[in-house]
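Protocol step 4 of 5: obtain the predicted structure for the target chain.
Materials: sequence only (see below). No template structures provided, no constraints applied. The aim of this step is simply to have a reference model before the mutagenesis design in step 5. Sequence pasted as it appears in the construct record:
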Amino acid sequence: MKKESFFQKVYEVVKLIPPGKVTTYGAIAKFLGSPSSSRTVGWAMNASHDNQNIPAHRVVNRNGVLTGKNHFYGSNLMEQLLNNEGIEVKNNTIINFKNHFWDPNS
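Step 4 output (structure tokens):
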């Protein structure tokens, strides 16, 4: 699969994440049938920050850590966007991560 088409598939999944929910790079990779491609999902998210139609702030690592936050304009923008959706973050980690987790596989 070409990288560009995989990125587009990632973006389509990310657009499905409801406000107030987050998912992980790994959950997206698994949903797309490529469970070992978490890192590629991360690259796709890194490439998406100029597109405001993709809610990249809703994708975090498997522990609920905002690992992509440095790719947003402003060091606290990712956290602010999540806070605006009712998701509390402390020390770059989502509080009650399991309660906010959205699984595209279910």
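Step 4 remarks: The radius of gyration is 13 Å. The chain has a mean pLDDT of 93.
Proceed to step 5.
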